[in-house]
Amino acid sequence: MIEHPAAKPTVLVTAAKLAPEAVAILEAAGYAVPCTSGYPSEAELLAAIAEHRPVALLHRQGFINGTVMDAAAPALRVIARHGAGVDGIDLAAAEARGLTVTRAAGANSRSVAEHAMALMLSLLKDLPSVAAGMRDGLWEKTSRMTRDIDGVTLGIVGYGAIGSKVARFADAFGMRVAAYDPLLPAGPLPGPGERVADLSALLARSEVLSLHCPLDAATRGMVGAAELALMPRGAILVHTARGGIVDEVALLAALESGQLAWAGVDVFLQEPLDTASPLRSHPRVLPTPHLAANTPRGAVGMSTMAADCIVAVLAGRVPAMAGAVVVQGCLPAAA
C-alpha cells in the first residue's frame, strides 16, 4: 500500500487498484488514495477505515453496509460507485446517515453492450462447442449447422444506457428487437425495437434474452424456473447485469433439460465465483468473470467519473454528470 502524508484527507478505494487517471484527479485535489485488497471483507474494510479515516469511499468491490459507514464517521461524506450498479452499497443506511452516494452512470455502457453482443454472437454460432470439437480432433464442416442471426428475436430487459446500445447493435445484425422496461416513460422506445409492456410476453418471444436491469427488490430473482419455461425451447440467455437477478439453480436446470441451449454469464450471485461452481464448467455455459466493463475506455471512464464525483461532492457541488447522484446526502437541498 502506498504511503501518503498523514495530513492529507483520504479517499479509500475498496479494491486493489484504481486507474492512474483517477488517482491523478484525486491527488491533484489534495487527497491521498490508498487501496484495500481485491474484494475486501468487512473486517478488512473496518481495519482500513481505522487506519486511514477516509472522507470518501470509492467503491469497486466488497459491500458497504451501515457498520462500515459508522466506522468511518464522522469524517465520511460520500461513497462513489465505480460503475452504474449500486447494489453493493446499503442505500437506506447511507441515506439515514446523511451520506451522498454517486455512481458512474453510463461510463461503461458501450463496453458492457459490446460484451453482451460478443457473448450473444458466439452462442448463436455455437462457437464454444465448435471450438471444443476442433480441440478434440473433429472437423464438423458438413455435420454441423449453426444459426442465422438475421431474423432472430432478441428480448432486452432494461432499455437504459446499456440495453439501448445492445438494441442498436442487434438491429444492425438484422435481429428483431423487443424490450421490456417499466422504468421508461410511456410511449415508443427511444431507439430500435418494439416496446413490450409485460415481461411474460417478452419472454415468450425471446429466442435470445439479454438482461440490462439493476438489481433491486423488484428484480431480485426475477428470472427463475417459471420465467425460463416461458421462453422458446432452445433459447439463449445473456446475463451481464447483476448476479441475483437470475436464479442460478433454475438456470442450470433449464440448461440440463434443453429448455435453454446456451447461457453467456458475466455476473454471479457470489463473486468471485466458487471454483467448484458448475457454472464454471457446464458445457452449455460461456462464463466470464464480471469483466464486461473492463476495456481501457470503460475502466478509465468509470474511475475518472467516480473521482470527479468525489471531488465535486467534497467541494459542496453537485456532480456535473447526468444521473450521477443516487442519494443526495450532504449535497445542497436544491440539488
UniProtKB/TrEMBL annotation:
<dbReference type="InterPro" id="IPR036291">
    <property type="entry name" value="NAD(P)-bd_dom_sf"/>
</dbReference>
<dbReference type="Pfam" id="PF02826">
    <property type="entry name" value="2-Hacid_dh_C"/>
</dbReference>
<dbReference type="GO" id="GO:0006564">
    <property type="term" value="P:L-serine biosynthetic process"/>
</dbReference>
<dbReference type="GO" id="GO:0051287">
    <property type="term" value="F:NAD binding"/>
</dbReference>
<keyword id="KW-0520">NAD</keyword>
<dbReference type="GO" id="GO:0004617">
    <property type="term" value="F:phosphoglycerate dehydrogenase activity"/>
</dbReference>
<dbReference type="Pfam" id="PF00389">
    <property type="entry name" value="2-Hacid_dh"/>
</dbReference>
<dbReference type="InterPro" id="IPR050857">
    <property type="entry name" value="D-2-hydroxyacid_DH"/>
</dbReference>
<feature type="domain" description="D-isomer specific 2-hydroxyacid dehydrogenase catalytic">
    <location>
        <begin position="13"/>
        <end position="320"/>
    </location>
</feature>
<dbReference type="GO" id="GO:0047545">
    <property type="term" value="F:(S)-2-hydroxyglutarate dehydrogenase activity"/>
</dbReference>
<feature type="domain" description="D-isomer specific 2-hydroxyacid dehydrogenase NAD-binding">
    <location>
        <begin position="117"/>
        <end position="292"/>
    </location>
</feature>
<protein>
    <submittedName>
        <fullName>Hydroxyacid dehydrogenase</fullName>
    </submittedName>
</protein>
<keyword id="KW-0560">Oxidoreductase</keyword>
<dbReference type="InterPro" id="IPR006139">
    <property type="entry name" value="D-isomer_2_OHA_DH_cat_dom"/>
</dbReference>
<dbReference type="InterPro" id="IPR006140">
    <property type="entry name" value="D-isomer_DH_NAD-bd"/>
</dbReference>
<comment type="similarity">
    <text>Belongs to the D-isomer specific 2-hydroxyacid dehydrogenase family.</text>
</comment>
